[in-house]
Amino acid sequence: MLVADKISKTFHSGSVENRILKNISIKIDTGQFICVVGRSGSGKSTFLNILSTLLKPDKGSVVFEGQDITTLPENKINSLRQRDFAIIFQFHHLMPYLTVTENVLLPYMNKLMPVPKSVIRRAEECIDRVGLGARRNMLPGRLSGGEQQRVAVGRALVKSPEILFADEPTGNLDKKTGDEIISLMKNLNNEGLTIIMVTHELSYISCADRVVVIEDGIIKEVSADSCY
Ligand SMILES: Nc1ncnc2c1ncn2[C@@H]1O[C@H](COP(=O)(O)OP(=O)(O)OP(=O)(O)O)[C@@H](O)[C@H]1O
Ligand SMILES: [Mg+2]
Predict the structure, then answer these.
(1) Distance CA 44, CA 46 (A)
(2) Is residue 12 part of a domain?
(3) Could you tell me the pTM of the whole model?
(4) Residue 52 near ligand 1, beta carbon < 6 Å
């Protein structure tokens, strides 16, 4: 379970204060699929980044499995990110000169030690899982946009994360390719993965158990039906 309690975040540009999140609280149960929506600039990425430890709130706490992760030392945060949290973005950030398999294994590559065979097997399973078994030796440049994003999903899955955070994972894709990514994510959620996804695409919120709207720095929870 992930609990955000009264988180606030203000950005300063010159003398202007921009209060983006004002005392936001939410409790997310294991296995839920949450969609976060709201207009551009409303604070969706800021919210997701705080939940996923990429950004610290000014005030408030984020508690994961009983531990306040906003006050953890950097080494503990790193191991949390390596073990339990996976994050995918609008742009997939693949290395163009590495194959699909090598990209998926990238977080495990270490100049000093070979990647353990068990991790390679797990990577291959994840590549199959995202439907790219036949493409595992290709370079990303030879894949479609949707296939490239699927590599990013595969890379996120290798560690068997507790939570998948996704910031507009379909934002750079056409509708049909985006639909494929969402259906892959929905299948992963049906298998028990907790997903917190920011999206602009209102048709995707029907996948969600809960829809959270960020507006004027606060969150409103709405039912998926009322967004249409
Ligand atoms: N590091 C930063 N420094 C200053 N201002 C920032 C910073 N990060 C975000 N902001 C501002 O905070 C506001 C919210 O940004 P955020 O990226 O969370 O919005 P968003 O809802 O994800 O928007 P979009 O839908 O366009 O991605 C914006 O006005 C943005 O300019
Ligand atoms: Mg954003």
Answers:
(1) 5
(2) no
(3) 0.92
(4) no
